Amino acid sequence: FSGTPQKYDPTFKGPIYNRGCTDIICCVFLLLAIVGYVAVGIIAWTHGDPRKVIYPTDSRGEFCGQKGTKNANKPFLFYFNIVKCASPLVLLEFQCPTPQICVEKCPNRYLTYLNARGSPDFEYYKQFCVPGFQNNKGVAEVLRDGDCPPVLTPSTPLAQRCFPAIHAHKGVLMVGNATTYEDGDGVRKNITELVEGAKKANGVLEARQLAMRIFEDYTVSWYWIVIGLVIAMVMSLLFIVLLRFLAGIMVWVMIVMVILVLGYGIFHCYMEYARLRGEAGSDISLVDLGFQTDLRVYLHLRQTWMAFMIILSILEVIIILLLIFLRKRILIAIALIKEASRAVGYVMCSLLYPLVTFFLLCLCIAYWASTAVFLSTSNEAIYKIFGDVNTCPVNGKTCSPETFPSSNESRLCPGAHCQFAFYGGESAYHRALLGLQIFNAFMFFWLANFVLALGQVTLAGAFASYYWALHKPDDLPAFPLFSSFSRALRYHTGSLAFGALILAIVQIIRVMLEYLDQRLKAADNKFAKFLMTCLKCCFWCLEKFIRFLNRNAYIMIAIYGTNFCTSAKNAVSLLCNPFPTVAVLDKVTDFLFLLGKLLIVGSVGILAFFFFTHRIRIIQDTAPPLNYYWVPILTVIIGSYMIAHGFFSVYGMCVDTLFLCFLEDLERNDGSAERPYFMSSNLKKLLNKTNKKPAES
Question: Which domain of life is it from (predicted)?
Fold first, then answer.
């Protein structure tokens, strides 16, 4: 792609209006794919049942707590032996290999089957046995056949499932150690297994408590989180408005403020590090402490603050070095940002266009997610034999719960059960479900990339109209954003679909590589892991390159109305222009916008930190009490970054468009009266370019 000068066209005044449709074949393919996607959605919605994901099912595949079912008044699922849920079989079959029943309430006391049998507590115990249980068997037979659980422990419901309560572990252990039975060897074994499993479940239960505490923090702090996000939006909008009038000053203020914010962070980390000197337990290393669900523990370690201080110091040094070595490029980048500020000022409605993109992306995500759920729940209930893996020859085979008690399989495996395993099927539709899920994911990538491409072409066309207007704003069209949007949909749907298709193919390949990588983690094959890592790295780089190529191709499509391949070739030709440091200059503007995002996010994050940690004395009583103050702080920081990114993405597209137009201007024109430069006076001054006045007659 060697850059060759464009032929001068005296009629060229910006985005071409007399253009034709491009890449029509890709447009047809996209329409056919959308029709197929709608058909897949209709089929999925016809066969699927999302209740299978949301609500628990017992060993017979019947819903718990659903109206119109026999378990309508039993909303909770009870596991006979929840320890078996940690079996690898669960990962393969998505069902615990233990009897499960729907119950009205989770057990609230510790009770063994032997203690309950023959006592007044047996009526309470019976509600946790299989439906229709008759007390006409011996203890060993009941436990062998899985008619009743060997022991009950106090449990609490989570997602309509009964999980052992943490405080019950010690009581179970004490009773288990203190109780013996004449004929209870099997029972004692089950109790011991349950106790050990309860110990192992500590991590899961702690995670449950962590999730509940985080949820509580959100319920009491959501109002202040919204206020923090509104502040981030106001700051972003104010920053954009100030850039319109004070672009140069704002950029330098932004650079200085980011350096100061990082400097304050380093100072704060050092003060916390010095304050913890001599405190008991503050010298414990992060490795020795391990993972803790209460993240506040780490803030009492000197090593934590030392790590923060080192990270911030490295960022500070990198930014300062970049500013020193790229100072000349920064001046040109500031001139481009000033020009972009004027362009955004003349096309202010462009700041609202990200809302359109966000709305369309939400539609894509909602359709993809609902279709995926309906596809995954459109299977039939499959029942399998669950028995001892070592002694049962038919373990894992399909069965029917109605005929299993009298079948040969039940005689081959006396202790086995025929219970619900998962949802599946043997029909052609069920065999095609995996392919339909892949198609669903592929169409999501394609449509999402198409929506992003539409936004890029729309903004590029509007900002190109500004650049190529010789007398601004008199030569600007009345509605540049709407005109660009209509041109993109009317003429270039096929080109946008072509670029989005290429990117979607690479993305679906990356998803499949991630899936294969997860499957290969269990295998100890170093060559396969190395090859997988190389492939993932290559396709990651390929996706980044295609994104860069597409973005610049869309700008050329918006200006000239050429097809995707021609636009991509012309864009690369311009970027390979001998004009010095083209790539560096482009990245400098990205770097400056990144500093702007960091300034907004850092300011809002520091404000949120001081507020939620009750360090602002004036409003100390206003901040809500929290279990983990980092929950709302992280939420505000992430949300602020997304808001700032939405505003700055418009600026980024404006700068990229003006940059390509600027390079095209240098190719087409020479500053003569017949071929004047369209660039701003600031850019002409920086590059020592001038427009010659027409000769007087």
Answer: Eukaryota
